[in-house]
Write a structure and sequence with these properties.
Length: 365
């Protein structure tokens, strides 16, 4: 049996044709496909504005930049995410303030946020871990009571729902990634969506070196110091083609997650739990086990490419060298990190392969 990856893109003939047409058109970048893709994202999510960029990491960066906070502002966030979530705070010369997570969803523990708010706190960036939306209502209340901006790192949550609305409608800005392992892909890519026209205007400018053009004139202004984060036209053509199958991909992820739940409930593994009132988007299927490192080795020996998401961000040397985070302040993060493992899950994964993975797990027990 071939190695089973933990995630994988699904490119079909329509996608390939869309990219070829994109390459044959007059514009291979900054052309009509960019706006078309942005409009299609808005239609899918039900929001007003979208800015596509060359990665989820870039999207987080310009979202934080667009807040235009005073240097050294504190931004509350989760240590249990991909490092880009907090790097965006550092690029913009702000200070990350980590709050511990909840064990069951691995999302930021909203009950522990208020204790960390100081007079320098300006925003909260939260991640919907594995595609399970956070307690957004409580986050909105905290944000209103304390006058804080909200940015949602929804790189795992494209298509997920909270309160019967798609993720992308709840914050000042919401960020997605179109990396091949995510729900839809443009190779590399990402987007910031917002219902605030002012943020949208800034994001469009921040995407292109901080340049604001004047219509029908050679004149342009540089409003911000920013990088070149543009997504090419042929990537947007791929995104448009992928987006047509977003709901299909999501259903397949759901089916596969339910099959895992069904087979593995007889094992000693702690399976993912879902709160009411949400739709999980199943970017990942993660379980907790007491012998994680042994289990990781065993699965690799059996050609199943499991992964660990995530190493707590405060453990990385870049963070250790600059801050004094103490792992004892994050007991739940530490416990979850010591036990968690990500099983393979992607739309094109065969049901037989899920059963095979489960068989191997059952043999280990
Ligand atoms: C994938 C991911 C990112 C970064 O996205 P890229 O497109 O790879 O730059 C950021 N945050 C989270 C939670 C992610 O999973």
């Amino acid at each position: 049996m071939n190695k089973i990856p933990y995630g994988k893109q699904w490119i079909n003939e329509d996608d390939i044709i869309a990219v070829m047409q994109g390459l044959r058109s007059d514009f291979i970048t900054t052309g009509p496909k960019v706006e078309e893709f942005e409009k299609a994202i808005c239609d899918y999510i039900g929001c007003f504005h979208s800015t596509v960029v060359n990665s989820g990491t870039s999207a987080l960066d310009i979202a934080v930049h667009a807040l235009e906070l005073p240097i050294g502002s504190e931004i509350i966030t989760t240590p249990f995410s991909f490092v880009s979530t907090t790097n965006a705070i550092l690029y913009n010369n702000h200070i990350p303030v980590f709050v511990d997570i909840e064990k069951e969803t691995r999302n930021i523990d909203v009950d522990k946020i208020t204790d960390k708010i100081t007079s320098s706190t300006e925003a909260i960036i939260y991640t919907d871990y594995a595609g399970h939306p956070c307690d957004i209502k409580q986050l909105q209340e905290i944000s209103e009571d304390n006058d804080l901006f909200l940015i949602e790192d929804a790189c795992h949550a494209f298509g997920a729902e909270y309160d019967n609305k798609k993720i992308g409608n709840f914050d000042d800005m919401t960020v997605f990634s179109f990396h091949p392992l995510k729900h839809i892909t443009t190779g590399e890519g990402g987007a910031v969506v917002t219902n605030n026209a002012l943020f949208d205007k800034k994001l469009k400018c921040l995407r292109q070196i901080g340049i604001q053009k004047k219509k029908d004139s050679y004149l342009y202004d540089v409003k911000y110091l920013s990088g070149n984060y543009k997504l090419t036209d042929f990537q947007c053509a791929l995104g448009l083609s992928q987006l047509k199958r977003a709901d299909f991909f999501l259903k397949l992820r759901e089916n596969r997650a339910w099959l895992y739940n069904h087979i593995l409930r007889k094992t000693s593994f702690e399976l993912p739990k879902i709160k009411s009132g949400i739709r999980h988007s199943w970017h990942m299927y993660t379980v907790l086990t007491n012998d994680r490192d042994e289990f990781y080795k065993y699965m690799k020996e059996n050609k199943i490419n499991v992964q660990v998401h995530y190493i707590p961000i405060y453990q990385f040397s870049y963070y250790k060298d600059r801050f004094n985070f103490n792992s004892e302040d994050y007991p739940v993060t530490e416990e979850v990190f010591s036990k968690i493992i990500t099983l393979p899950l992607f739309p094109e994964m065969k049901l037989d392969d899920i059963e095979h993975v489960c068989n191997i797990i059952e043999n280990w027990e």
